[in-house]
Amino acid sequence: MAPSAPRLRILGAGRVGSALAALLEEAGCEIVDLWTRSAARAAASSAAIGRPCRSGALDDDAEPAASLAADATIIAVRDDVVAEVCRAGARLLERAPVVLHVSGATPAARALAEAPAELARGTLHPLAAVSTLAQARRVLGEVYFGVEGDEPARQLARALVSRLGAHALELEAEQMVRYHAAAVTASNLAVALWGEAAALLESAGVSDGLAALLPLIRSTVDNVATLGPIGALTGPVRRGDRGTVSRHLESLAQQFPRILPLYRAASLAALELARASADPPDVEDIASLQELLKPAADGAA
Ligand SMILES: NC(=O)c1ccc[n+]([C@@H]2O[C@H](COP(=O)([O-])OP(=O)(O)OC[C@H]3O[C@@H](n4cnc5c(N)ncnc54)[C@H](OP(=O)(O)O)[C@@H]3O)[C@@H](O)[C@H]2O)c1
Q1: Is 106 a pocket residue for ligand 1 (Cβ < 6 Å)?
Q2: pTM, 2 dp
Q3: Is 14 in the pocket of ligand 1 (CB under 6 A)?
Q4: Does 126 contact ligand 1 (Cβ within 6 A)?
Q5: Residue pLDDT, tens place only, 159-211
């Protein structure tokens, strides 16, 4: 059974660590210790969330907070230093039976392999893209969290997600890479597509491509939320308009060739959605578009 009001130690007071400290404290958890490496970050975190944050040596014996026991330690430093923090903070980690990390790319058994052996290890990954601490505080109470790891760690992670009013996605270790690739595709790769679309529009003479595209992007996201990807898909591939797609490919090859592989790959994915719809394009149009969009055999755009 997860404790009714978990006592937590949070290592890392960046966007995610500070936001979790603030939100979990508001949700009734006791944050016994919030640590970050640099004094500047500790001051910024403390000012932003209105609670103490210590900095400096991880297990500083002169720090009362460092000696306190907890139900779990949440490690919220950047991915590449999680192992280092596990090693340097071994004495601290031993003061809680559970250790959680918040990165989505790696299962807990691997990410936290350097933590003391007797601890239960788990993942508590917010499926969110947060650029600022203020945004993290706004959204982490309503997103999905990927939860994975040893059962006692999962139980505690689930209890924290529930306290936040967020949603838990139960995952197994072998699903983590695909889970994270899905998150990257939905967020980072969509950002890359929007960036390329804005650059393409600017290459056609529009001064602020992104400003012109934003209402289109927003209405598209709204349509996907309401209708799902198949229902929301519009455009020449959806209609089976081979002629329009062919003109795009010719123009892009001459004027903006770097986008061609992206255009072809995303159009083929769109064609799969169109094919799955209740009123797909004609079979001949689908076959013809597939032929037109497939990558050139010689690797040329
Ligand atoms: N941002 C997101 O959208 C998002 C979403 C889901 C999950 N996450 C995960 O959340 C974790 C933290 O990300 P974030 O966005 O909160 O990062 P962040 O705001 O950049 O904060 C990074 C944290 O890592 C600490 N750090 C950096 N180098 C360190 C080192 N060598 N030793 C010890 N601590 C070090 C920083 O401490 P100092 O500044 O004090 O040195 C700071 O506390 C990552 O695992 C990330 O994958 C982020």
Answers
A1: no
A2: 0.91
A3: yes
A4: yes
A5: 999 999 999 999 999 999 999 999 999 999 999 999 999 999 999 999 999 99
